[in-house]
Amino acid sequence: MTKSNGTAPKHLRKESGEFFKHVMRDFDLDEHHVILLTKACEALDRIEEARAAIKTHGLTYTDRFGTPRARTEVAIERDNRLAVARLFRELGLDLAADGKTAPPALPANR
């Protein structure tokens, strides 16, 4: 659990910890929002770890049948990007100037 004084959890990477401190300094978050912010920062760390593995090993590998397959890290990066976007939205960190948090409606849905 994080301290209420805005100290970042020690297990976060430097960049995520700085982001955590920035948000804690600029926003008045309830305890449950601090938990969501921590989870978002952890997901940001998973994204960076997956990107490093992809940079080292590439996007694909060849299975035993000679078929190219996406590496597991590709799914990890994708899933954590979605998690970060959803957590930021839940926290209200993506508020536009008009106050809307939902994406704009598609023309076909009007």
TrEMBL record:
Q: Which InterPro entries match?
A: Phage_term_ssu_P27
Entries under Pfam families matching the protein: Terminase_4
Protein's recorded name? P27 family phage terminase small subunit
What organism, scientifically named, is this protein from?
Answer: Bradyrhizobium manausense
